[in-house]
Specification:
Elements: H1 2-20, E1 25-27, H2 29-39, H3 41-60, E2 67-77, E3 82-95, H4 100-166, H5 172-206, E4 212-214, H6 230-236, H7 238-257, E5 264-276, E6 289-296, H8 304-370, H9 376-410, H10 424-428, H11 445-453, H12 456-461, H13 478-494
Parallel strand pairs: 1-4
Antiparallel strand pairs: 2-3, 3-5, 5-6
Length: about 500
């Protein structure tokens, strides 16, 4: 029995050690972001929500089409004892004589496009968060190496101090101080490792549970490679696009609500295919069909239409205010990110010079102390200064990466544009992969455009409004389009993007 328990405990120990020994997958930033697009669970949920909205539109407009039903009935007249059974087909359809169908379909399609734009906005934020976390993890790993180097230095200094103490060259106080420095360095290493492990946990969460770590690579200072333009940001940010679509949809809802007292015309047709007995009072009789039209002219609906229009009007005002807020938020995001970049860029230059001076000072102080020509307190101060400015330098480099990520996010560069084309920041990393989904990125835009073409009165009514493309993107001339395409080709050629 004891032998079996020993074997079982040994087996469990081996299983636990095997689970602990599973190493994280080392990958590049491009591979990591591709992993997120494929396996992030919140992203999958968003895709399915968009798909649900897509099918919701198709289901809702189905009520505008004729309906066909198989009818069966049986009637009994008690005082005569007649029992009649019939079987037939019934066709019904409400004819749109007020233009409500077109408005309803357009506002539903716009609702779906709003959902798509919101999904793109979430995607923009998700990828930005992933890249920011990635660079934070890279800097955290560099910080772990730095703290380990400091620990190695202080351990060596403590050894030298012990040797001097044996030779009675330094007092006992120097040993106490050097030991305290070693303990502090060990604590700094543990803190740095914990921060790094927490960031790896965040990377794993964003990648759908896959344990990943940044691949080993030379640490480089980032260069400013973002084309900052407020107008482009308003055109490409998906949350701004969603707000513009919401304004457009709210206006359609108001027009649709205003037709609450519109007349309705219902068409119905009934055909009796079989009846038993054949000669009955059934209408229509066997083999015959009947047709009917029903016109309804509403007079009073308890002020439902009146207050519904007022409600829709307030929704328009709310949507317009939200759009204005997002436009100002875009301006703020760009300004803050630019200020953070300039501050981090200047800090990197300053901290780099400080690191070089602190490193030289520490080297000289260590030599003087080892030769008995310097005080221990000077050595401690030099070590503290070097660790401090080195940590600040890594933080400055990290802030540069974060500022660039914030700029790209503010420009909407981490999500597809309204046509489903990935923006420059995405193509730069080669991560222009379609998010997995059935019809999550499918557009009903063409249908909406066709509906707009069918409603010339709608265009005439909005003649005073500024001309905009679908989704509120300002129209561009052919010359402007050619210039933009030429500039993009030049950028892609310089960066080796096909």
């Amino acid at each position: 029995m004891k032998k079996r328990l020993f074997i079982l405990s040994l087996f469990l120990t081996l299983l636990m050690s095997a689970g602990e020994s599973v190493a994280a997958v080392s990958m590049s930033l491009e591979q990591y972001l591709r992993e997120i697009l494929l396996n992030n669970h919140s992203l999958r949920a968003g895709v399915k929500s968009v798909e649900a909205d897509y099918y919701s539109v198709l289901a809702a407009v189905g009520t505008q089409r004729p309906s066909l039903a198989l009818t069966a009935g049986e009637s009994l007249v008690t005082h005569k004892g007649d029992d009649t059974t019939t079987l037939g087909l019934a066709l019904t359809h409400r004819i749109d004589i007020s233009g409500k169908y077109s408005l309803d379909e357009r506002q539903r399609i716009l609702g779906y496009e709003v959902s798509r734009a919101q999904f793109d906005a979430n995607l923009n934020s998700l990828i930005a968060t992933a890249e920011e976390t990635w660079w934070s993890a890279v800097m955290a790993r560099e910080n772990v190496r730095l703290q380990q180097e400091v620990l190695t230095q202080r351990s060596e200094n403590h050894r030298v101090t012990m040797e001097k103490y044996r030779q009675e060259l330094v007092p006992r106080l120097d040993i106490v101080r050097s030991e305290a420095q070693v303990v502090e360095a060990e604590s700094q290493v543990k803190e740095a490792e914990t921060a790094y492990q927490n960031l790896l946990a965040n990377l794993s969460y964003l990648a759908g549970g896959l344990d990943v770590e940044p691949e080993g690579q030379e640490l480089r200072v980032p260069k400013f490679d973002v084309e900052v333009d407020y107008t482009d940001a308003l055109a490409f940010r998906p949350d701004v696009r969603s707000a513009r679509l919401s304004v457009e949809r709210a206006k359609l809802v108001k027009k649709l609500t205003g037709k609450g007292l519109s007349p309705t015309l219902d068409f119905s047709s009934q055909w009796t295919a079989w009846s038993d007995p054949e000669v009955t009072n059934t209408v229509p009789k066997k083999g015959e069909a009947s047709f009917g039209l029903s016109l309804k002219l509403p007079i009073f609906d308890g002020h439902q239409t009146k207050y519904g229009v007022l409600n829709a009007d307030r929704m328009i005002q709310a949507a317009e205010s939200k759009l204005q807020s997002l436009e100002e938020e875009t301006r703020r995001d760009i300004a803050v990110a630019m200020n953070n970049w300039k501050n981090a860029e200047a800090a990197e230059v300053d901290r780099k010079r400080q690191v070089e001076r602190a490193q030289e000072e520490l080297h000289i102080t260590e030599l003087m102390y080892s030769e008995g020509m310097g005080a221990q307190i000077d050595l401690i101060n030099a070590q503290v200064s070097y660790r401090s400015v080195s940590t600040e330098y890594l933080a400055a480099v990290r802030d540069m990466y974060v500022a660039l990520v914030s700029l790209r996010k503010a420009m909407g560069d981490y999500a597809p544009d309204e046509d489903g084309t990935w923006r420059e920041a995405v193509a730069r990393y080669g991560k222009g992969n379609e998010v997995l989904g059935e019809v999550g990125l499918k557009s009903l835009r063409d249908t909406r455009v066709q509906l707009e073409k069918k409603d010339p009165a709608e265009k005439a009514g909005s003649a005073t409004a500024p001309a905009v493309k679908p989704f509120g993107v300002p129209p561009a001339s052919e010359e402007e389009v050619a210039e933009v395409k030429a500039a993009l080709r030049k950028i892609y050629q310089e960066r080796g993007i096909e």
